[in-house]
Amino acid sequence: MTHTEEDLLRVVYFSYQTYDTDREMMAWEIDKILEKSQFNNGRFNVTGALIFNSGVFGQVLEGPIDAVEETFERIQMDERHDHITVLDTSRITERSFPRWSMGFIGSDSVCAELFGEIGSKTAFDISRLSGQQIFETLHALTLKNEISDRAA
Amino acid sequence: MSQHHSAVGMTDPSSSAAPSDDPSVEILHGLRDAGVGLVALSANNEISFVNNAFLAAFDLPETECAAVLGKSFQDVCPTCPLPSSTLRRTGDETGTADAASDRTAKIIWSSNSAGGWIGVVTAPPSQAARPALLFEPDELTGLGTRKHLKACFERMSEDADRRDQRIVALFVDLDHFKQVNDTLGHAVGDGLLCKVAERLKKTVRRDDLVARVGGDEFAILVSDRALPAAEDVAGRIIKMISRPFLIDGHQITIGASVGLAARLPNENDPDKMLQRADIALYESKRGGRNQFNWFKDEMFAELEKRREIEIDLRKAVLLDQFKIVFQPQMSFEQQKVSGFEALIRWDHPVRGEVAPLDFLSVAEETGLIVEIGTWVLAEACKTAVTWPEDIAVAVNVSSIQFEDDGFLTAVGSALEKSGLSPHRLELEITETTLLKNDSVVLERMNDLRALGVRISLDDFGIGYSSLNYLRKYPFDKVKIDQSFVREPFADENAHHIVEAVAQLGTAFGMNVLAEGVETVEQLARIRQNGCAAIQGYLIGRPIKPAEIGSFLEVPLPELASLQSPPKEGSTS
Ligand SMILES: Cc1cc2nc3c(=O)[nH]c(=O)nc-3n(C[C@H](O)[C@H](O)[C@H](O)COP(=O)(O)O)c2cc1C
């Protein structure tokens, strides 16, 4: 199926980390994922953001339909996560993360965004958020520049 | 140690490739990992060095290099003639040992001053000896076809026999593929098949073969020393196919069922093996999908049994072998029998009474359920019209029958021919029906309600049991599954669920009935939980139509305990 550049797709999903590793190992693993993502996504014109907390990943991917679907398909084959649940897919006309081939968001800032500063110490569960919540929170944080391209 | 040994440099070649300052160690590692097969023999033809590529060329890919050091070359590679037997040794002579057949690798030998030999593999066997297989890919997915699989099977069989390996066929069928095609169209269905093909290719190991052998059917050949390797592949396939797909902006989730069958000794026709894998696949589907099963001989027998049931089933309607029995239901408010559920019985002249569980699944698989269901519907209406006006009849409708184009007509004609007023007919459908396309199911329900008949949700509580169903579909009644009523499954949690469903159902204007009530205690509890009606042995077992008249004349014995509803907490 061929689509024009104007056909943009946005996908929001969450998934669980497969193996139990300590914090440092995971930061290292996430760095590798980010590095690869930024390289690949840059080439395919895909943008978005990734968040990781307490063993759960949340990700927003946006871009031309075919490119997003190809990227998504590659991510599906990744053994580093499992129980992948798509929360939302929608056609969009404008990107929300135009500057980020794959931004990473530290979970602390999300806690602050969602629950106010008081909540920032307590762990929260990404898998309990709706697609819209994940998307809006990550988007709000990019506007505040609470986003980075490194995990550690 | 002979001089020859030291010439090659004797650090243990199996030691790990840790960085080292000693250049000879690095050279050794280089030789060990070289893509070309190398071997060094001592003067008495013992192996003093060998690398992986050499062993692979002689079909010993899983043998450890270190394990054959010091062993006699002839023992390790019996198919390869010794250099000393084919070459005269005159100083620094080089020569080619002709391979015993074109199935074995060719080696160039070179003698060394210590009286030993260095051998270099020049032509690995398979590529040299055998032409590439003709490959005509499947047009849609680019995978091999059944024809290609057959050709590969022959070749794999030859290799497997030589290497003492097993070949296993995996038959993979996609669950819910038809629904994707029906609801999202063929273009999306085709896109899905392509992505499935890609996932399969990435999931299997390098030497496994994937082919598309039917619309949504794939076959994979796996060859390995041990059978669990194939189970591993099957498990991974199920996991990977159940992950979500994105196609044309749609999120799609399907599943895969897999059947496995191992090649029998000397079996040279893959069709038989694929057939066995297909039978095992059928078992996986019956077992609830998203699983794999090995073929077992009993499966043939089971299949045969079901085939016989199918043949008999086809005759049963014509020969009038089905009967209907009726199980009473009681409403708390009216404190009397409010209706009967029609249950089919099959009395076969030779088989005797066949359990509904045994024949209904065959009827569903073969589609015979439509004919049988239509008969039950007509017969139940005919019987019910002889009962008092305020007693209803409930008839089970399978999802296949519900979806059938002729269903509305069948209901209409059952009512018309019997003269039963429509509001006395209740159609019981299960969640399986609701899992299909929403809008189609809703439309059908509305059409049926327009005829005046009522619709119940049967067996609620097992399966998905989304409370959303109660909101989304216009049910007149919900029947809570007996597992929530009867011990040992009905624990404290079950009671809370019954209560919640009763409240919610009632709030949505539905009549909530609990099934499987057998004791007075259960009855009291169910009533307290807020259910409006019950069914179960306490009220009555299924009875023949002729017994209904007298059954209705005798008051229900338990009604005595209902005259004064039990107080909170009391169990009598
Ligand atoms: C949670 C998670 C998110 C990922 N996000 C991306 C991504 O946005 N883009 C990408 O190319 N790879 C992403 N990956 C990595 C891919 O799964 C895969 O490893 C990578 O795309 C392979 O790229 P390659 O084929 O170029 O080696 C992600 C992996 C995980 C576990």
UniProtKB/TrEMBL annotation, chain A:
Source taxon at top rank: Bacteria
SMART domains given in the database record: BLUF
The protein, known as: BLUF domain-containing protein
Pfam families noted in UniProt: BLUF
Domain BLUF: 8-103
PROSITE patterns per record: BLUF
InterPro entries for the chain: Acylphosphatase-like_dom_sf, BLUF_domain
Species of provenance: Roseobacter sinensis
Database matches in SUPFAM superfamilies: Acylphosphatase/BLUF domain-like
Membrane-spanning intervals of the chain: none
Gene3D superfamilies: 3.30.70.100
From TrEMBL, chain B:
Pfam families, sorted: EAL, GGDEF
Cited CDD domains: EAL, GGDEF
Sequence ranges of Low complexity compositional bias: 12-22
Gene3D superfamilies named in the record: 3.30.70.270, EAL domain (3.20.20.450)
PROSITE patterns registered for this protein in UniProt: EAL, GGDEF
Name of the protein: EAL domain-containing protein
Domain EAL: 306-556
Occurrences of domain GGDEF (ranges): 165-297
Region (Disordered): 1-25
SUPFAM superfamilies: EAL domain-like, Nucleotide cyclase
Species this chain originates from: Roseobacter sinensis
